[in-house]
Fold this protein.
Amino acid sequence: MLKLCSRMSHTPLDLKRYRAFLRAYLEEALVHSDGTVRGISAYLESVRVGGRFVRFRQERQRALADARRACDEHPHWPLEVLLAYLGIDRLAGKE
């Protein structure tokens, strides 16, 4: 089984939680933005992971960083292609 390790520690990431947080961040960004990749990127830049005692902090930080990086590196891609690149089939906020 593939396990990602965080850059900050040697604790393996929980991939199930990571995928859930990635999906949640993108759904939230889609609701609070204009629906374009640039709008999603702008919203994700304003999102912050809580303080020191947040549950599953590493998974949250990694999911947010990966979503930001994908939106920043590929702002010209259609949203469906970007979601497929991140491994997400469909978002609840997108109809």
